[in-house]
Amino acid sequence: MAADNSSNQPQSGSNLDEIRATRIEKVAQIKELGLNPYAYKWESSHHAAKLQEKYVDLAAGEEVADLVAIAGRIRARRVFGKLAFFELQDETGLIQLYLEKKRINQTMAAELEGAFNHLKKLSDTGDILGVKGTIKRTEKGELSVYVSEFQILTKSLLPLPDKWHGLTDTEKRYRQRYVDLIVNPQVRQTFRIRAKITAAIRRYLETRDFLEIETPVLQTEAGGAEARPFITYHNTLEMDLYLRIATELHLKRLIVGGFERVFELGRIFRNEGVSTRHNPEFTSIEVYQAYVDYHDMMALTETMISDVAQEVLGTTKVTYQGEEIDLTPPWRRVTMYEIVQDATGVDFAQFTNFESAKTAAKDAGIEVPSDCQTIGKLLNEAFEQKVETTLIQPTFITDYPVEISPLAKPHRDKPGLVERFELFMVGRETANSFSELTDPLDQRARLEAQAAKKAAGDLEANDIDEDFLAALEYGMPPTAGLGIGIDRLVMLLTDSPSIRDVIAFPLLKNQSTAVKEFDYDVDKQILRIVFGNGSVYKYAEVPEKIYKELKETGSVGQYFNSQIRDKFGFDREL
Known about the structure:
This protein is of the alpha+beta class. Helices cover about 30% and strands about 25% of the residues.
C-alpha cells in the first residue's frame, strides 16, 4: 500500500502558477459540496503543546475517550488507501492527526457523504484545518488526535516551502515574514521572547512608579539626537513635519510639568543606512527620573536588564554567537579616557593642542576624518575605532566629551566632559544615559551650535526647538535620562546576529528597481550602484572579488539580488 505524498514535495517556481490554479479549482469543488472553504469560526478546546503535555505518559497503542477539538495548519500529509496521517501545526507546536476512513465516514455521514475521500482529494499542505476526535498514541509512539470529524477552515492557494529545506533564502525570509513564521518555529520563538522582554521592561518600571506617557510621532522640530530625520507634509496645515528621531524632548517637558518618573517604549525613525545593527525604523525606550543623576541610571540599567533576562530566560548568563555573556550585576565601569589609553597608549587628557593630539592619534593607527577638529571628537574616534568592538561583557563607558553630548549636564568635577554613560555589550552600544542638562542658557548655546552645523550642511544636526527651551526656562528639576535600543537588546537575549532577525517586518529595498550602472572604490571597498529610477546607493565593505564577479556576470540584476542586496550595509547618496 503506497503512500500519497504528492502535496508534500518541493515546489519550484516554474510550476507555481499550475499549483495555484489547481488549488483554486479545489476551492470551487469544496463550494460545490455545499461547504465554505473560508470559514467564519472554530472553537478549539486545546492547543498542540497542551495535548503533548497532558498526555505525555500515554503508552504506545493506547487511546483515551477524551474528546478534543484543535485547529491549525497542515504541515505534512501521508495518505494511504484507507488511512492518512497529517501533521498539524498551531501557534504552540505540532501534533499528528490520525485519520481513518471508516471512522470519519461514519461520524460525518449525515453532513458529507464520503468525507474521508473528499479530505484526501481536496486538502493540501498549508491548508488550515479544524478537527475533533479522541487522543491516541500510535504503535510507533506518536501522540495523535484520532479524528472523527474535520472542517477545512481556510484553503491555501500557494504551497509552503519544502518541509525538509524550509525557507532558507535570507532575503525571502525577511520579505515574506509570514511564510518564515509558518515554517521556522525558532523565528516564532524569537518574537515570543521579544514580546516577553518588552512586557517585562514595562512591569519593571511600572512597579517602581514610572508612568508610560505617549509623545508625538509627528513633530515640528526633530530633536533629542543627532540623526537625519524623515520629512513628511501635512496637507491641511500646509507644513513640513518630521517623524521623531527620539522621544527625549517631549518626555523632558513632562518632567518640567511635574511628573517625576516617565518613560515611553515605541518606534523611532532615522533616515540612515541599513546594516546588521541599523534599521531606519526601530524601537527604543527612554526613561526619565527627577532628582537623580547618571550614577542612579547606571544602577537602574543593570538591574532592569538583568532582572528581565532572569524573568524571561530564567538566567542572567546568555550565549551570544558562541560567547557567554554574564549579565549579573554589578557591571564594569570605566571612563572613555581610561579605556582609550589602555587600548592605544595615548592619554588624550594631557593634550591642549589639537594638532599634537592628532599626530599622536595617527601614530597609534587611528584614522582621523576631515570633520574631526577637536580633541574630544578625536577621543571618540579613537574609542570607536580601537575599543568599541572589544567590549563583549557589559561595560559602562562614562564621562564623554561635551562636543558629542549636546543634551548632557557638564561634569561636576571634570571640565570639558559631561556626565554621560553608554552601555556596550557584544561590541555594540545598547544604552545611552545623561545627567540631563537643566540650564536653559547653556542648552540654548549648544542647540545654536547644532543649528549652525545644520546650516553648514550637517544633515544629522538639529534646529533650535524654541518650545523646548521655553519649557526649560520654567525650570526642570535635576533629572537623569536613559535610552535603550530594544532591538539590540532582543538580539542579545535571543542570540540573533542581525537586527532584521528581531524586527518582524524590516524595511527592505524595492525589488523592482533595476541596476543601471555601478562603480567601485577599491581603497574604501564601497560599491556604488545607480538604479534605473535614478536613485544611487553605496554598499559598504564589499570585497573586490564581489565587484569583479558583478562585472563578469551574465545577469547583473540576478547577481546583485542574490549576492549583494541585503548582504551588505548601505546608505543612499543624495
